[in-house]
Amino acid sequence: MDFNFTEEQSMLRDTVASFLQDKYDFETRRKIVASEAGWRPDYWKAFAEELGILGAPFSEELGGLG
Q1: Which of 16, 5, 8 is nearest to 52 (CA)?
Q2: Most exposed: 2, 12, 35, 63, by fewest CB within 10 Å?
């Protein structure tokens, strides 16, 4: 069984890592989690719109990444 990442998985990992490093570092996460809401809609919107991550598990016919 091959446990190596595919090219797509590696690209996704690198994209998410870069986004988190640039916009959602540890201190930012700590403050958000400690806030009353515990999350920030603008970050989830970025995950959906900028990265398209939230569409990953859905087929292209449904508007996802396939």
Answers
A1: 16
A2: 2
C-alpha to C-alpha distance for 42 and 61, rounded to whole angstroms: 26
- In SS3 terms, 5-66 reads as CCHHHHHHHHHHHHHHHHHCCHHHHHHHHHCCCCCCHHHHHHHHHHHCHHHCCCCHHHCCCC
Dig out the tokens for 48 from the structure: 């959906």
Instruction: Answer positive or negative: Cα dihedral of 32, 25, 46, 58.
Output: negative
The two tokens of residue 52 are: 């398209």
